[in-house]
Design brief:
This protein is an alpha+beta fold. About 45% of the residues lie in helices and about 25% in strands. The protein folds into 3 domains: about 1-60; about 70-175 and about 260-310, Alpha-Beta Plaits, CATH 3.30.70.1660; about 180-255, Double Stranded RNA Binding Domain, CATH 3.30.160.20. The strands form 2 sheets. It has an 8-stranded mixed β-sheet. Strand 7 (about 205-210) and strand 8 form a beta hairpin. The radius of gyration is 23 Å and the shape is globular.
Length: about 325
Amino acid sequence: MHQLTGLKQEVFQWRNLEQKVTELIELSHLATWESNPELEGEIHTEIEQVASQVEGLELQLYLGGEYDKRGAILALHSGAGGTESQDWAEMLLRMYMRWAEQHSYQIKLLEVSPGEEAGIKSAILEIDGEYAYGYLKSERGVHRLVRLSPFDADHARHTSFALVEVWPVVEQDVEVKLNPDKLRIETFRSSGPGGQHMQKTSTAVRITHLPTGLTASCQSQRSQHQNKEMALHILRARLWELELKRKAEEKVKLRGKRLPPAWGHHIRSYILHPYKKVKDHRTSYQTSEVSGVLDGKLDELMKAYLKSKVGEGR
C-alpha cells in the first residue's frame, strides 16, 4: 500500500503538469490573437513555475534506485589527526543536519562519541523523509578539509579527513533476519548527558552480530528497551548494507569494473585557505561558496553526482 500510494502521487504530479502545459498552450494562442501584455506576463510567470516543476521531476528520474526513496542512516568517523579531524567531523555533522532541516526531513541523533578536547570521534543519525537515501548516497566516502587550524597556536595550515557512511533505512518487512542465538547483547552505563537515571543505571546497549562481527550501540534513549530497539534498527541497516555490497561485488565481477576507491582517497575537498573552494573530485563540480555548503547547501553537489551516475547505469 505504501508503494502504491507513492506511485499514485508520482502519476498525479505528471498528469497535473501535463494539464498545466495544455492550459498554457491555449493561453499562448489567446495572447497571440489579443495582444494582451497582462496575459503575456501571467503566461511567462506560469512557464517559469512549470519549468521549475519539470526540473524537480527530472531530478527524481535520477533517483530510480531500488532504495532511493527510503530514509537514510548516516555515520561519521573522524580520521587521523586528533582534535583537528574530530572538529571536522562535527562540522560535517552540522552540515548534514542543516541540509536535512532545509528539506523538512526528520532527524534523529542516534549516537555521538564526543572528542577528547573538541568535536566528535563519531556520530550516527537517521534522516527520515522521501528520497533521503537517494540524495545522501552521494556523500559516501572520505571528505578532506584544508584550513588554518583554530587549535594551533601558530595558526598553521592543517589537512583533516573524515569518513561518511550512508545506508538505507531497512523496513521491518525486509528479509533481514536476526537470529537471537547469533547476537551478543551487552549493557553499560550511558556516558553522555541525559540525567542521573541514565548515568546511574545500565541503559546503554551494544549488540554484536557474531557471524559478521558487526556492532551497533545506542545510549540516547531513556530506557534499556528503547536503546535495544534502536541498536537493532542500526544493526539491521548495516547487515542490509553488507548484503548490498555483496550483490554489488558480484555485479562488478561480471562486468569487470574496478571498485570505487574508499578510505584514503577523498571524494571531496573543502578548502578554506589559502583560497575558498569546495570541489567534488568525482564530478569536477566546484564552487567558491564554501560557507553555504558547510551550512547545508549541498543540492548542486548532489545533483552533479546523480547526473554523472546516470551514464554509468548507477
